[in-house]
Amino acid sequence: MTTELVAMHMSDGIVNAPVSLAFGLVALVGLAICVARARRDLDDRTAPLAGLVAAFVFAVQMLNFPVLPGVSGHLLGGALTAILVGPYVGALCVAIVLVLQALLFADGGLSALGTNITNMALIGTFVGFAVAVAMRPLARRSRAGLILTAFVAAWVNTVVASLGFVLEYALGGQGLALGTVFGLMAGFHALIGIGEGIITALTVGAVAAVRPDLVYLLRGERAGLTIKETTPR
Amino acid sequence: MSTPTKNRRYAGFLGAFLLVALLLAGGASYLASSSPDGLDAVTQSGCEAVETEGGEQLQGECIAQNAGEHATAGSPFADYAVGGNEALTGLAGVVGVIATLAVAGGLFWLLRRRSGP
């Protein structure tokens, strides 16, 4: 039997069937909540943008960059999508990319879709967004602040998403000591997170340079400024 | 509220965004590193990839040996190639960008809040 070596996401059988199934349910419930909440963030203007953000994530996920000899990394896209189109729509963007990669491109196992979606679409996106929201005052102050926010949120989303895999492996994987898996995953993804951070910062910075009104994280910026202007000093 | 000029400029922005995605998937994808990514490097840790008649095989002891053959390995675009031809990765990438745009854009368009006429 040949073993696939060019895949980018978790394959079938890496964690056992019960754990795969359990995370399949986690992913289903999480995505159902996202579908319900995404409606609020989608209108005639933002829906086409969100579709393009998903297509952009698919494209950039193909671009593996080297991080160590023999080890590469690629964008996960959680913070990127959450900052541009919000966490609910963003999680759906990443999930759609993962589903199409598994169905069309044999990348990421079908039974591993639940774990892959949980890690990259749900954990990555919501953790990335939480960091971005915590840094929003800085992001609103200047373009540099927004770019720094995007970088930090993306770095954290990469590392925490990789820890999702460590959790799933602890529950239903075998073959390597758990401490080793934790150390290698966290170490590799601390490096990959730098690449994720740079790509996210560049993308968010480019969109903000031409259309800051389209950046979800900055919404309400103008209202905030108006209030500031009318506040007597 | 939205004037034709504003709409045209927004369409231009979206078109530029799509063009960037197509160029990255269709062109820059040839420059991508072929080393295993962080996750695969971990699951292949302890194994060595050996070229055999049936393709690459993992020898040694590692997590990835628990991995099964992919259920959609027979897809024409499996492994970001076209019919097994890796020289056509760019074409597979363009197909993926358009498919993602169609599925995601379609879903988001259906989900959107409808504005009154």
Automatic annotation (TrEMBL), chain A:
It comes from the Bacteria. It is a multi-pass membrane protein. Gene3D superfamilies: 1.10.1760.20. The keyword Ribonucleoprotein does not apply. The chain crosses the membrane at residues 14-35, 47-67, 79-105, 117-139, 145-167, 198-218. It holds the Pfam family CbiM. InterPro entries: CbiM/NikMN. It is found in: Cell membrane. Keywords: Cell membrane, Membrane, Transmembrane, Transmembrane helix, Transport. PANTHER family: METAL TRANSPORT PROTEIN HI_1621-RELATED (PTHR34229). This is Energy-coupling factor ABC transporter permease.
Automatic annotation (TrEMBL), chain B:
The chain crosses the membrane at residues 87-111. Keywords: Cell membrane, Membrane, Transmembrane, Transmembrane helix. It is found in: Cell membrane. It comes from the Bacteria. Coiled coil: none annotated. Residues 13-113 form the PDGLE domain. This is PDGLE domain-containing protein. It comes from Actinomycetospora termitidis.
